[in-house]
Amino acid sequence: MLTPTEEKRRRRFKRVRVQLMRSEEFCEVAPVMMLGKTEIVDDVPTACTNGRDEKYGAAFVDQLADDRYLGFVIMHENFVHKMHRHLTVYRKLYDEDPVLANNACDYWGNGKLVKIDPHGRLIAMPRGDDGKPIGLLDERFDNKSVLEIFRILKKEKEEGKEQPGDGGSGLDDHDWDGASEMSEKEKELLAQDIEQAIREGQMAAKKAGRGSRGDPLGLEELLRPRIDWLAQLRQFVRSTCRKREVSTFRRLNRRFLAQDMAMPSLQGKSVKKLVLAPDASGSMFYSSSGPAPWVKCMSEVEGLVRQLNVDELHVIYWDYGVTKHEVYTPATVKRWKDTTKPKGGGGTDPSCVAAYLKENRIKADAVIVLTDGDLTAWGRWTQPLLWVITDRKTTAPVGKTIHMTED
N or C terminus of the chain with fewer C-beta within 10 Å? Predict the structure, then answer.
């Protein structure tokens, strides 16, 4: 049995929540808001979500006397954290630095919400008695991803700049532990439920005549298929670097000998060379979550070299020019982590690699170039060419491009 105060609080919370679900600005979020449990409890200081369930502190709800403040917090949990799956997608960032991961997610999300309702018609950034925002907000992070914000904050921390220590500056907490307690199957189902809820929200908005607004919430990006760049890399290497083979009776196929059948075996006709050319200007050798891009790519190529029995792997580091050239065989490639010596740090001009291959008469069966895409030139190439680019907005004008994703 609820007390009169609890019942009043519950009714107000429900009214604000329903108003948001019916609004033109946030109607598309409504199906996501229906996922999981929503509770008002006494043992939560502010608000939190594990990516599925939401909890709001009773005293904190009462503190948000303006309905627009309460609406902002509700959308912060639902649109920012639940819909964008922050508690699972950015777990690696949390493991690296919990405070910075929390702050990056909140800077990103609060900036989005302020832009969606800039005049505070439905939601407004909560403010304290001193008029200052409760929560993290900084215009310099506009149009930046959570990962980019995290990198900026990490660099500032390393330079000695003090960071807000509570990962939200009083607006909410993030239930990373609750998210990690979900099984992999639960996480997979939750991701599917969220995607379905987003599609349902879009359909409902169109039926209500709100389809002409475009995509102010950026939902199309959330629904865009994520292409496995590693699968594309494997496919490219396998399709271009398999040894050309011919059938020969010089060595019989042993699989048929037990059946008294003399069948030819396949024999390689030519030596294969694969070139991996990492951008040595710096960006490929740093990652805020997990191994650096070039390490992830090189590890994958190492396995492919051994699987396909590629005779020579040429690792060519470059910036404005070629800075280092290393050659590996299927036997020595196993030790590349201990033997490789990246060298560089200057600009980014991959045309030097094309020129180097020509000058040194290295006829590669395929070339894989790793870069962030911030280049001064692309070069002229005669070999099968694959660009692995970290910047999703950049596509090379020559060869095939795949985009390496970190999240």
Answer: N
